[in-house]
Write a structure and sequence with these properties.
InterPro entries: Cyclic-di-GMP_PDE-like, EAL_dom, EAL_sf, GGDEF_dom, HAMP_dom, LapD_MoxY_N, LapD_MoxY_peri_C, Nucleotide_cyclase. The radius of gyration is 47 Å and the shape is rod-shaped. By secondary structure, the protein is of the alpha/beta class. It has helices at 20-70, 80-90, 122-127, 155-206, 220-255, 265-274, 291-298, 300-321, 344-364, 384-399, 418-430, 469-478, 482-500, 512-516, 518-530, 532-535, 544-547, 551-563, 580-586, 605-621, 633-642, and strands spanning 95-102, 107-112, 134-141, 144-153, 281-288, 326-329, 334-340, 371-377, 406-408, 434-444, 450-459, 505-509, 538-543, 567-573, 590-593, 624-627, 646-648. The relative contact order is 0.08. The protein folds into three domains: 20-178, PAS domain (Beta-Lactamase), CATH 3.30.450; 265-408, Alpha-Beta Plaits (2-Layer Sandwich), CATH 3.30.70; 418-648, TIM Barrel, CATH 3.20.20.450. Helix content is 54%, strand content 17%. It starts with 19 loop residues before the first helix and ends with a strand. It is built from 21 helices and 17 strands. The longest helix is centred in the N-terminal third of the chain and has 52 residues, at 155-206.
Length: 649
């Protein structure tokens, strides 16, 4: 699993790794050099010994032959032929000194050569010393000794020959080494190519792409590894596919009312949040009159049939007017419709069509007065509960009018004009007149301590009255200032991390518009390079329903944030917005579940199964799954049993 607190490490053993081909190439090259070095040293020593022996034999042969040649002339020590014969031998150049002495040891002829061979380096002579070979031969005339001749070989010739032998052997060895390394490189590249394929496959599996090796390697051991990798890839893909199917099925059960097939109230609240941003539309509240009496009169089976028929009529009527419309069942007798995009000029005809549909359902079940309808417009600056309350209030008013009647709220109070909002948003952001509080502390359920907390922005108007943050963010997006707000929040969070030496992660909420801002990315890149120690503590949070609108943008931002050392959290996650397949591709660091998924989980087996499946997906994809705002102790215990790493409560 990823690290859960503190700065992410920028350097690891992976940065100091070396490929197998390089290791083998270096190892074999070092072995070659060791073998060559030892063999080369032994060869040089043998050649030196051979040259020394040859030098001694040559000196002795020369002394012997010269002594025999000089013997007839030793009767006259002053005979010039003695010097002539010695000079002829000496001129061959292989001798350092030839000296002729008489029987009393007096020197008759002496020739010396102090020639230095510049071709041979001094260091070579120093490291490979050679003995100077000297041989002596006595000269006799008849039975009498008349003198002796001493021959000393010149070592320079032996050094020169030894040095040339060394250079020839060295050049040959270097050429052989270069050729061997080239052949070894080609051989290793061919032999290790399957391992590179397996390495790429492993990286693909880690990234969530379960590739397989089509052509298995011919080397037995590598073939077995490749076959095992293929099997593992298939099994993991199967497990994730199975979990995805389970999540879809369980999510469907949790989202939809079992009897009518309509969405539940939790989906209504989420859908309403998705509609923030000024989109035109209406919310419809439908309430069945005297439902308890109706159920008692009709019986359970007939009542269920009536509810199903009513749900079908509501959805058919709504989708006929607006294809993107959705139907919801809140409680036994309360229904709702959300029609995004429905214009004011079409709301009255739609209401009449809905009234006719209610009459048809009533006639089918023998009830003249079946339900009443309240309709309220979407308010981009209001809370979802406030809009629903307005529709419910209109529904109550419709009860006073007549059977199956309706009431339409014609508008809503904006409170501030566009110009007032513009001035307020610019002033608050430019002057940084907003406060940051830290909420939703996520406890590390495995090791204890604090895993992360959320930086929550609070804004106030001129009188100090708190403004709804959703409305303020919506207006900041409308005036293209949301990126500036997110930038200011990020700066304040880092200032706190530095000042208070905070060690846990801090979650910073970003809007999708901020993710698109190239100016924000350029600033964040420069800012985090100036604060690398705090980068790993920043956890940028984006809501799941925002990500669902542009998954590619979210994935691109994850790569960007990871490049800076920061981490990313997918907030209020539900499988209906972002599928497991999409999560597998995006690979955020954290997923924070929507609070409804864990609310009442201790008494709802479907929720428990769903959260367990999401946790298993997180384990497989190396994503940390945390729960949000777990209210009861029993729910928290179940969350702990499931194995979620963290939860706020």
């Amino acid at each position: 699993m990823n690290g859960v607190a503190g700065a992410a490490p920028f350097f690891s053993d992976e940065n100091r790794s070396m490929s197998l081909s390089k290791q083998l190439l270096i190892l074999i090259s070092v072995l070659f050099l060791l073998i060559f070095g030892g063999n080369f040293a032994v060869s040089l020593d043998k050649i030196r010994g051979y040259l020394q022996v040859e030098s001694r034999i040559h000196a002795q042969d020369t002394a012997t032959s010269l002594g025999l040649s000089l013997s007839p002339y030793m009767t006259n020590p002053r005979d010039p032929i003695l010097a002539t014969m010695i000079q002829a031998i000496y001129d061959m150049g292989y001798y350092k000194e030839i000296r002729l002495t008489d029987v009393e040891g007096r020197t008759l002829v002496q020739l010396n050569d102090s020639q230095i061979f510049e071709e041979v380096p001094r260091w070579f002579i120093h490291w490979l010393p050679m003995e100077t070979a000297t041989a002596t031969s006595e000269i006799s005339s008849g039975w009498n000794i008349t003198g002796s001749v001493q021959v000393t070989s010149h070592p320079g010739y032996a050094y020169l020959k030894l040095y040339q032998q060394m250079l020839d052997a060295l050049y040959y060895s270097l050429a052989a080494l270069a050729l061997s390394v080239l052949l070894l490189f080609l051989l290793l590249r061919f032999t290790l190519r399957p391992l590179k394929t397996i390495d790429r496959q492993a990286q693909a599996i880690a990234a969530g792409s379960f590739a397989r090796i089509a052509t298995l390697p011919w080397t037995t051991e590598v073939r077995n590894v490749a076959r095992s990798m293929n099997q593992m890839s298939g099994k993991i893909e199967g497990v994730i596919g199975h979990l995805n199917q389970r999540l879809d099925a369980l999510g469907q059960r949790l989202r939809l009312d079992e009897l009518t097939g309509l969405y539940k109230k939790t989906n209504f609240e989420t859908d309403m949040e998705r509609l923030f941003g000024g989109e035109e539309g209406y919310v419809v509240s439908i309430g069945i009159d005297a439902f308890a009496e109706l159920a008692r009169d009709l019986g359970e089976t007939a009542t269920d049939a009536l509810l199903r028929h009513l749900a079908e009529a509501l959805v058919q009527c709504a989708t006929a007017e607006q294809p993107e419309a959705r139907g919801y069942r809140f409680h036994g007798a309360e229904f709702a419709l959300v029609l995004p995009g429905l214009s004011a000029v079409r709301v009255e005809p739609f209401a009449r069509a809905l009234q006719e549909a209610l009459r048809d359902v009533g006639e089918r079940h023998g009830r003249a007065d079946i339900a009443h309808v309240g309709i309220a417009p979407l308010n981009p600056l209001g809370a979802p509960t406030g809009i629903l309350a307005a529709a419910q209030d209109a529904c109550q008013q419709a009860r006073l009018i007549g059977a199956n009647s309706y009431v339409i709220r014609q508008g809503y109070e904006e409170g501030r004009s566009r110009e007032q909002w513009h001035a307020l948003v610019f002033d608050l952001i430019d002057q940084r007149r907003y406060q940051i509080s830290y909420i939703d502390q996520v406890e590390d359920l495995r090791h204890g301590g604090l895993l992360m907390e959320e930086a929550f922005t609070q804004v106030f108007d001129e009188t100090g009255t708190p403004l709804p943050i959703a409305a303020f963010v919506s207006m900041a997006e409308r005036f293209d200032r949301i990126a500036d707000l997110d930038r200011g929040v990020t700066e304040r969070v880092v200032e706190r991390l530095v000042a208070e030496r905070v060690s846990h992660g801090v979650e910073i909420n970003l809007a999708m518009a901020t993710l698109r801002s190239l100016d924000f990315r350029a600033w964040l890149n420069d800012f985090l390079h100036r604060h690398p120690a705090q980068a790993g503590q920043l956890i940028f949070s984006i809501t799941a329903y925002g990500v669902a609108k542009d998954p590619a943008l979210f994935q691109d931002f994850i790569r960007f944030a990871h490049g800076l050392g920061a981490r990313v959290l997918l907030k209020r996650y539900e499988p209906q917005f972002v599928s497991v397949e999409a999560v597998k591709t995006m690979r955020p660091d954290f997923i924070r579940l929507a609070r409804d998924l864990t609310a009442g989980i201790s008494s709802d087996e479907s929720k428990r199964t769903l959260v367990e499946a999401i946790r298993q997906v997180g384990d497989l994809l190396d994503i940390i799954i945390v729960a949000e705002n777990v209210q009861s102790r029993s729910d928290l215990e179940i969350v702990r049993e499931i194995g979620l790493p963290g939860a706020s409560h």
